[in-house]
User: Fold this.
Amino acid sequence: MMLPALLLLGTVPQNEARTVELSRGALVRGAGSTEFRYWDVTDTTLDSSNADTNHGGSMSLLGGPGRTILIRFGDLNRVVGPFHRVRKASLVLGSGGGPTPSLRSVSRVLVPWGEGPLQTLSGILRVQKPAEGTPAKPTAPLWGATWRERRGQRTAWQQPGAAGAADAEPIATAKIASDDKALTITGLEDAVQRMAERWYENHGFAVSFETPTEVSSSQSVKNRPRLVLELEPVAPKTGADLSVVSISRGAAEGGEVPFTARVKNVGTAASEGFAAAWVVGERQNATIENPNRVEPGQEVTFTVRQPAKNTPDHRVHPIGLRIVPKGNDAVAGNDYLEVQENARFVTLVVDPKLAEAAKATPNTLGSRSVEDWAQEQVRTWNDVYLAHSRFSFATEGAKERVALQGIEVGQPGGVGTGTGNTLNYAWLPTTTITSTDTAFLRSLGVASGLPDMSAMSIARGRIDLKDNGKPVDRSNVDRFPGIMGYGDTRFEGSVPGQIGLPYEPYFSPIFEVNPLEPTGLLSATDVARVNRGLEGGTLTMPKTLLVRAQDLTGRPLSGVELSFFQTKDGRVPDGPPAFTTVVGTTGTGVLPNRGEFGPFGQIDPMAGNGTFLVRALVNGVPEWSWLKAWQLYDAASRGNQTAAIVDLRFNVPGAPLEADVDLARDRIITDSAGSLPAKLVALVDDSTDTEVAIGPKVGDWIEIDLGRDRTVGEVRLATKSGFLPRFDIVGYGTGQRAEEAIPIAKELDWAWTSQNRGESGPGGTVSVAYRGPIPRVRYLRILNRSGGEGKLAAIRIVPARVGP
Assistant:
């Protein structure tokens, strides 16, 4: 059963002028006032001095003599939609300042090109390693642009550097200005409007400079290219509307496969005749004339036969049908449809109510057709979710694609997968359809061969295990899940494969200076599963798995017994552990292989048994960590097939706690704002009735004077409204200054920690305990590291018992 529609077209007024700034990863408000993360940005440098080398995926773009910068902002119709047109458009490129470079030209690219793979640390090191003998001629990636080719190894530019008349069309209105931070190219509105109306003509911009120029790319940590749009309201068009609503694939016969396109008038008036042409491998075939009128709802079909192809890369054999209406046509965005010849073809059955709802409000193309809406969902899945889910082992994303074999109106049933199967979409009626429907996209994920493995993400309430008769009240929802509900979506190509990734918000110096950006698209496990499946393989785990037990600060836990409780059907049942292991002096232990499938045994199809809840008892405190099958799949995908080490962090104290003592009770408390004690005392009065806000600026603080130097074993913070996203807990002793404070704990993601490690308290509070090494301090300070206001209801400080 599908989820309810969450983001609706028409839920807020559409007829308002607005400004949108597009950059890779930006949260943007799109057509229909929906918000989404924008990822469909690609860019590269074409360099005549390295004419056969692809430079996509680098951190910078280089312009100047003998160089061309290509940059494309996709998905524009989902941003502009039918209710607006582009009044102004500017391309902003981040630079290091200096004189304004001399702009030679800005052109609208007329043909497709490929960015190529993202750069990884291992790839850079391989390039830097001297080759033996005479270096071979560089080979461009199969789909990546070079100075000579727009599709590496396949299709050349008309003239090198995208300089031919068939390659790019100059934009005469383009002008450049600069300040100390960026170059701004204006006058692009007509080109961007065309790109928004005709997604199939959006191949981005070619920018050439007379003088050497370096700007940040879309992969840069900061100053990414931005496309700034000023949009003005317009009324959607009505009348005749010819649409290529589907392309289906027939059964192979005699080494050939038939493809059939359906052209339908989805508008409200009769259409004049039209011309049609198949586009195979991005090359247009001969034109086919259809001089007859097409009435509303009437269809015309076209069939072409292609040699059967068998390749593990399903991105590289596009086939489409392009139509050119003879008379007025309301929507240009549905005049072309493209599929991949080797895609997974599925038939979509939609609820009749959904088909009727589609007629009420134009979709992001401007059409009122449920077929066009469905094709837009598939295009988003293919061009954004599959293409931009990239990892060190999949630097060009997933190589699978999905196509709709047909679209039928009927009573949907269950979801099917695979070629020729049926994808059923049951819609829960509201006022209209969504512009991008998460539930439908998840169904396309299933059609791409991805089982729903979200059972590995353990929500609160799915643990039946009791510890000494007390229920274990924890959860572990994945911090950076993909659209399928689990896993990790961060691109980790800048991290050596032997270094494990922190899946929970624990401080690591490596990842503090090298933060990894989550996309929310497909997880690494999803992409590995899809790509391996295309190659005839399956996911594997490391042959040997070692776990390293640590406290929250990363110190090893020596000689601790770890108990591993395995999930069943997505729950942690009550009962004995699946196995135990005792770690050595470095906190490291080897997990047993239970058959050929590793420590989990054979994973069931939906991964309901793919999670371990791990228990450690340290200094009298039982604490919990998690190990998930997808973490092991990802470790193997990153090059650790033989052996891998996974860190398990436990929130345990460095010494036994005096749990009945609260060192903060009725102590003097101050803050950076100089607040009156009467306001702040609510934090240390043993009540959670009143909340107190910490200052909203980075560096603001609240501090407790413990009266004398004390050993601190646990700091517990309680809140009703939610606390700061990031903060530090530090302490310093008598006679020391605040600048000499030592770290006690670092919180990197309060929302995740409070959800998964928080404990319910009186008055609707949630409290989180921070434990670790035992500092001896007099003053304990909580520092705002994120900015923004956070509120606390109570602070409790528990001493540790040290010595005899």
